[in-house]
Amino acid sequence: MSTPDPLQDPCAGLLFEIQRGDEAAFAELYRRYAGTLLLLLLKKSPEKNAAENALAEIFTHIWTRPFAFDPAKETGRAWLCGLVARHGEDRR
């Protein structure tokens, strides 16, 4: 896997650092994108508590399975949005 260019895809750059175990990059990813992801989750489920729980599950997934992201397949933001879109599908 090639190293993403953080200037062209800052989200992918953070995800790459998370793959290396960088906790500060994980905190920065959360700071930058948690609000946007929460808004997307609230569109799927208007119950705030459920959306917040889903957000926590998504960020747990990011930390525990960072290599699921492949910059050769999609941008970092697209991957994050895909996690939101797919969240809960396995529970149906």
Describe the model.
This protein has helices at residues 10-19, 23-44, 48-64, 76-86. The chain has 92 residues and is an all-alpha fold. The chain has a single domain (10-91), classed as RNA polymerase sigma factor, region 2, helix turn helix motif (Rna Polymerase Sigma Factor, Chain: A). Helix 1 crosses helix 2 and helix 2 crosses helix 4. It is globular. InterPro entries: RNA_pol_sigma_r2. Keywords: DNA-directed RNA polymerase, Transcription. This is DNA-directed RNA polymerase specialized sigma24 family protein. One of its GO terms (cellular component) is DNA-directed RNA polymerase complex.
Query: Which word captures the global form?
Result: globular
Structural class call reads: mainly alpha
CATH superfamily: RNA polymerase sigma factor, region 2, helix turn helix motif
Rg on CA atoms, Å? 13 Å
Question: What's the N-to-C terminus distance?
Answer: 33 Å
What level of helicity do the residues show?
55-70%
Count every helix, treating DSSP H or I runs of 4 or more residues as helices. 4
Low-confidence runs = none
Largest sheet: none
By CATH, the topology is Rna Polymerase Sigma Factor, Chain: A
By CATH, the architecture is named Orthogonal Bundle
Could you give the count of β-strands?
Answer: 0
Mean pLDDT: 90
**Which sequence of SSEs, written as H and E, runs from N to C?**
HHHH
Total domain units: 1
Oligomer: single chain
Percentage beta strand: under 5%
Broad CATH class: Mainly Alpha
GO cellular component, one term: DNA-directed RNA polymerase complex
Keywords: DNA-directed RNA polymerase, Transcription
InterPro entries: RNA_pol_sigma_r2 (IPR013325)
Organism: Nesterenkonia halotolerans
